[in-house]
């Protein structure tokens, strides 16, 4: 009998090239990365280093030019509910209210109505939007919209949550609140999270591992474990030491 794969994700020697106006752009070159179930991994690096491209390939929205991406030992194909994406611009359906946005996936997959209702309520409650269940996206703040987007991915039974600068458009206070909420949800659900950010502090606050990337062509230049105890304190001297460490690694870019 074949052994169970150890990793939820195995990214092996992945290169991605794009043709753009007759030129070839190497968005990502020879990237390899293995991720365990339940890990919180941050991808950090300056603009254009291939963070979104890597995330989109894990999501199944792009295919690699070379190399392979596996989930539980099987090649990643089309996008699927097991890999939920959360974007900076929310991606909600404006014509559906909060509950209908959250319940959309399970309903579309033909789950019985009672189960859809129960799942919807559980995740709307989990992200603290019970009072706004009937509200439409235009009636919500940015932070609330991002909570809906997170609840929607959770209701879809995602095993891996792919987050592309999800809090980048939010003010500092909302961002801090959502960081804490996401960490609580992650600890409770043991999801695997891959989180793209520009912000060193955000990465140190949240990640088990920080994968540092550099541009031109996009490459993984470091992959380091963050061993600070949780909850983490940005005023802690050890936190500061790591901040300086990653800032010097990112060099002139930060
Ligand atoms: N569909 C595409 N066609 C052509 N070039 C692309 C395409 N998608 C990405 N690229 C190029 O690939 C490189 C990496 O882009 P990517 O969006 O992955 O970087 P990023 O690190 O996520 O950047 P940012 O932090 O600005 O979002 C860039 O040079 C970009 O212009």
From TrEMBL:
**All residue ranges annotated as the ABC transporter domain in the record:** 9-240
- Report the Gene3D superfamilies cross-referenced here: P-loop containing nucleotide triphosphate hydrolases
Entry keyword Transmembrane: no
Under the heading SMART domains, the entry gives: AAA
Which keywords does this Swiss-Prot/TrEMBL entry list?
Answer: ATP-binding, Nucleotide-binding, Transport
Q: Which family does it belong to?
A: Belongs to the ABC transporter superfamily.
Q: Spell out the protein name for this chain.
A: ABC transporter ATP-binding protein
Keyword Transferase present in the record's keywords: the answer is no
Source organism, top-level taxon: Bacteria
Q: Name one Pfam family in it.
A: ABC_tran
Q: Which PROSITE patterns match?
A: ABC_TRANSPORTER_1 (PS00211), ABC_TRANSPORTER_2 (PS50893)
- Give the molecular function GO annotations: ATP binding
């Amino acid at each position: 009998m074949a052994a169970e794969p150890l990793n939820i994700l195995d990214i092996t020697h992945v290169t991605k090239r794009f043709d753009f106006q007759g030129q070839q752009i190497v968005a990502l070159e020879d990237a390899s990365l293995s991720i365990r179930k339940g890990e919180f991994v941050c991808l950090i690096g300056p603009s254009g280093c291939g963070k979104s491209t890597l995330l989109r390939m894990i999501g199944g929205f792009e295919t690699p030019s070379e190399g392979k991406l596996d989930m539980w030992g099987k090649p990643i194909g089309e996008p699927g509910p097991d890999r939920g994406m959360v974007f900076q611009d929310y991606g909600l359906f404006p014509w559906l209210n909060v509950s209908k946005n959250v319940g959309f996936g399970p309903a579309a997959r033909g789950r019985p109505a009672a189960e859809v209702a129960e799942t919807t309520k559980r995740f709307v409650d989990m992200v603290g939007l019970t009072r706004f269940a009937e509200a439409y996206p235009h009636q919500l703040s940015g932070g609330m919209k991002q909570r809906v987007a997170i609840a929607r991915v959770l209701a879809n039974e995602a095993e891996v949550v792919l987050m592309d600068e999800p809090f980048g458009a939010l003010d500092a206070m909302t961002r801090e609140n959502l960081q804490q909420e996401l960490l609580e949800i992650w600890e409770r659900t043991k999801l695997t999270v891959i989180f793209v950010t520009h912000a060193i502090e955000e990465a140190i606050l949240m990640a088990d591992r920080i994968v540092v990337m550099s541009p031109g062509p996009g490459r993984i230049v470091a992959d380091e474990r963050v061993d600070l105890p949780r909850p983490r304190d940005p005023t802690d001297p050890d936190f500061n030491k790591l901040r300086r460490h990653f800032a010097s690694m990112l060099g002139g870019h930060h």
